[in-house]
Structures are given as C-alpha cells and as structure tokens.
Write a structure and sequence with these properties.
With 260 residues, this protein is an alpha/beta fold. It is 44% helix and 13% strand.
C-alpha cells in the first residue's frame, strides 16, 4: 500500500533472488508460528528451523504445512547437519531432508572440526539435488576472530565454486560472533574485505538478528540486501527498515531520492 502514497526504494518481489528475508524458528508455539507467517508471508522467503529444534518439535509437519501453504521454503539449521556428520550419518541427514520435503539445505562447519575444503565437498554432494546454502564463520567468538579476512574470502569462493547458491555469513542468533564482535557490533574491516572481494552481494546472506545489524547492512548495501536469522515477530519491522519507513534508515533513502 505504501508505494501508492510515497516514493519508496525499489524492492524485489517474490520469488526473489536478492533482498531475501530468512526467518529463524527457535521453537515458537504452533499457533504463534502460523499467525506470524500468515501475517508477514509476502516478506518471508525462507524459514530455518534453528540448530536442532526440529528434532524435538512436536508435530513439526504442521509448521511445514503452513509454509507450503504460503509458498515459503524451509530447511534445517547447519548445526543439525554438523551433528549428523559427527555421527557419520550424512546420508541419514539427506533422507531426513527428503522425507520433510526440504528443497533447501544448509552446510556449515561452525562448531565441529571440519575444514572448509571438506565442507565444500559436502556442498558438492548436495548441489545437484538441493538449493545449497553454505555458511562461513565459527560460532565461538574466539575462533571467529582468529579467522582472517583472506580466509573468509577464500572460504566463500570455495563454497560458491562447489555449488552453493548463496553463502551465509555467521553471526549466530545472538548477533555476537562471526562477522560480529562479542559486543554485537559488526566487524567493519572484515565486512569491507568481503564486500570488496568481487563476490556479488546477492550471493551473500548476512545474519542480522538485531535491529542495529539490520540497519547497518541495509545502509551499507541497500533495501535488497539478503538478511538472515530474523525472528518471526520482527519481519514487518525489518521491512520498514528496508523501505526507509523507520527512523534508523529514513534519511538514507530520502537523501538518495533528493540527489536523484
């Protein structure tokens, strides 16, 4: 409705290749989940069932059905993939994804001792059957800080070459690791190095569970930046940030309009 009355930034429409909003379900109740998805469905592209919540969520199929009704893709968090790999049950993980009708799969090494080259090999094994989202970065802040910018860039390139459709940049559901400092602020030097490495921004998904992180990446890249780990209740609020309808980004887009 807003575009009828206001000049707003161009926003991609579903099915989107950029400007994705990936929502994380951390185990919210069924009715809340159904209402949250129905209320914001035009703005949700993917739902990730965070870490291993899928293994303990009763009647998970009800949530799948809600997402299928609204044409929203879904997948399991990379930590669950890592758990299966640690127990040498990768094929069982693929079977689970097929049984649950997941068309998207996340491959990560955020916790387990798995090299990026080995992770990329798993990406290659899945790329012909699934849309693969790989993840770069560690969940432990200390390990993440030891990963140099050049290592991040190399890992991103290796995953994309192996067949990943997009690469998720780790920040955890707290926004305090990976591309973020322990205090929740973005590691600007690292982000600048990634943005300058030649990989198009539409191939990257920035985990941004907090308003400050969402504002930062929208201001840096624009309304159609791919953002992940958005909690269900924040989807509408995020969309207002994308469109300059919230104080945090309002003047960014007004300045751009004025210059034009």
């Amino acid at each position: 409705m807003g575009s009828i009355f206001l000049d707003l930034p161009d926003r991609s429409t579903k099915p989107r290749h950029d400007g994705l909003t990936m929502v994380i379900d951390n185990g919210v109740p069924q009715r809340f989940f159904a209402d949250a998805v129905a209320s914001a469905a035009p703005h949700i592209d993917l739902v990730k069932f965070g870490w291993g919540t899928a293994m303990v969520t009763p009647d998970l199929e009800r949530k799948f059905a809600v997402l299928r009704e609204h044409g929203i893709g879904y997948y399991f968090g990379g930590t669950l993939f890592e758990k299966f790999v640690m127990q040498d049950r990768f094929e069982s993980f693929l079977t689970l994804c097929r049984m649950c009708r997941c068309e998207v799969i996340e491959i990560s090494n955020g916790t387990i001792p798995l090299s990026n080259t080995a992770k990329a090999a798993y990406v290659g094994k899945c790329a012909d059957e699934f849309t693969v989202l790989s993840e770069v970065g560690y969940k432990d802040p200390g390990r993440s800080e030891e990963l140099t910018a050049s290592q991040w860039v190399d890992a991103i390139g290796e995953d994309l070459e192996a067949g990943a459709t997009k690469v998720i940049l780790e920040a955890r559901e707290s926004g305090r690791s990976g591309i973020c400092q322990p205090d929740g602020k973005p590691r600007t030097d690292l982000v600048d190095a990634i943005m300058g490495c030649g990989v198009a921004s539409e191939r990257l998904v920035f985990e941004a569970p907090t308003k400050d992180l969402q504002t930062h990446f929208i201001s840096l890249i624009g309304a159609n930046v791919n953002l992940g780990n958005i909690v269900p209740a924040d989807v509408i609020g995020l969309e207002t940030l994308r469109l300059g309808l919230r104080a945090d980004t309002l003047m960014n887009f007004e300045a751009a309009t004025t210059r034009a």
